[in-house]
Amino acid sequence: MKKILGIISAIAMLLVSTFGCSSTVFAEPAANTETFQTSAPSADEGEFRGVWFSYLDWMEMPTEQKAFQAKTDEIMEDMVKKGMNAVFCHVHSHSDSYGKKLTTFPESKFLSTGESAPEFDALSYMIDSAHKHGLSFHAWLNPYRVTGYMKKWEDVPEGSFLKSWLDNGNVLLHDGDYYLNPSRKEVQDLLVQSVTEVVKNYPVDGVQFDDYFYPSLTEGQPFDLADYEASGSSMSLADWRRNNVSTLIHRVHDAVHEADSSAVFGVSPVPLLSSLRHEKAYYVDIDLWLRSDQYVDYILPQLYHGFEAKKGDGNASPQAFATCLSDWIELKNELHSPVKLYIGLALYKCGTDSWDGNETTEWLRYDDILAREVMYARSTGEVSGFGIFAYQNFDDEEKQKEISNLSKVFT
């Protein structure tokens, strides 16, 4: 068996007391900037390895049918060669839809190339090709976002219900962007309908929401405050908002399983538990979600930092990979959670000058960060899979060594 330059230790579990709390620390594989070899813990049978295919990737797809099919097959083959066994594909990114059988929301602008949009069902072929290549297909939705990067209010079709919903409060404007109102039952009903429509009309293997929940709200920013005041709720505003999100998550979980008992539902949130529990952002009751099997089948936090991440003051960042993963493992174990833990890894940062608090960023000094993160996660015995963000970065020249090293532990 091959050896690592800088051998990974046998699985180690050390309890470190800090401020009266215990943290689980595992042996970290040593960095290597030359030739990466691995005697890493092998993947468990059934290890999940997915890659995100976003609306930005959709934009690069040809709209002519044969060209689209050829490009899709090429993409799926590439994913398999790199060791992936699943794809998270946008089917609803900005209160829109990417399939001809989806009618709840208007067709996405990101399906079009210039003035041309596919006349065939591109999503249907995408799913068929994934399955043909042995990849599971997971429909990826952003629940509340209407506008944002590359999508403006004027891009929303004039005849769309979204335009009229701005008048009745089902759509809200906040800091220049538009959102579906998380507190409204009409909004929740529509999102559940949209998810059900996806699962019933396409043979997807799962549904995923990512980290776009409530936006960050500061004092004096009303957003859905009027709805809270009108509700007469005895809950605090923060708890009321958390309940709005959790109600939707629970309903979507049930809708997915009712539409297809074999399909799974998961969420990919931001990495810090403190951010999810914040009083003025996200409003994700992560403890509730992980405590039972009634909300999500898996959780996939976006651990998009390296091992050496620091804060601006030079001290270790709570988002540093090992620290952040330890927090998630501890929470899962404390709650005796039945929910599977996957983790998201940041291919998009590899080979770039992405600030991490170091004089020279870790992402420029090493070309095996993701591979080491996979090995570290496997050594804990607690991580069931990985998500790689994002497919659009697979061809980036500065990421090729990192991708090659990652493939060695994935294949």
What do these coordinates show?
This protein is an alpha/beta fold. It has a single domain (37-410), classed as TIM Barrel. The chain has 13 helices and twelve strands. It has helices at 55-59, 65-81, 122-132, 161-168, 185-201, 225-231, 237-259, 273-276, 286-291, 321-334, 362-365, 369-380, 400-410; strands at residues 14-18, 21-25, 48-53, 86-92, 136-141, 171-174, 177-180, 206-209, 264-267, 298-299, 340-346, 385-389. The strands form three sheets. An eight-stranded parallel barrel has the order 3-4-5-8-9-10-11-12, surrounded by five helices. A two-stranded antiparallel ribbon has the order 1-2. α10 links the parallel β10 (298-299) and β11. α2 runs parallel beside α3 and α12 packs parallel to α13 (400-410).
The H-and-E topology, N to C, reads as: EEEHHEHEHEEHEHHEHHEHEHHEH
Biggest pleated sheet: 8 strands, parallel, barrel
Report the CATH C-level class.
Alpha Beta
Strand content: 5-15%
Which structural class best describes the helix and strand composition? alpha/beta
Please provide a brief summary of the model.
With 411 residues, the protein is an alpha/beta fold. The protein is 34% helix and 14% strand. The radius of gyration is 21 Å and the shape is globular.
Topology:
Elements: E1 14-18, E2 21-25, E3 48-53, H1 55-59, H2 65-81, E4 86-92, H3 122-132, E5 136-141, H4 161-168, E6 171-174, E7 177-180, H5 185-201, E8 206-209, H6 225-231, H7 237-259, E9 264-267, H8 273-276, H9 286-291, E10 298-299, H10 321-334, E11 340-346, H11 362-365, H12 369-380, E12 385-389, H13 400-410
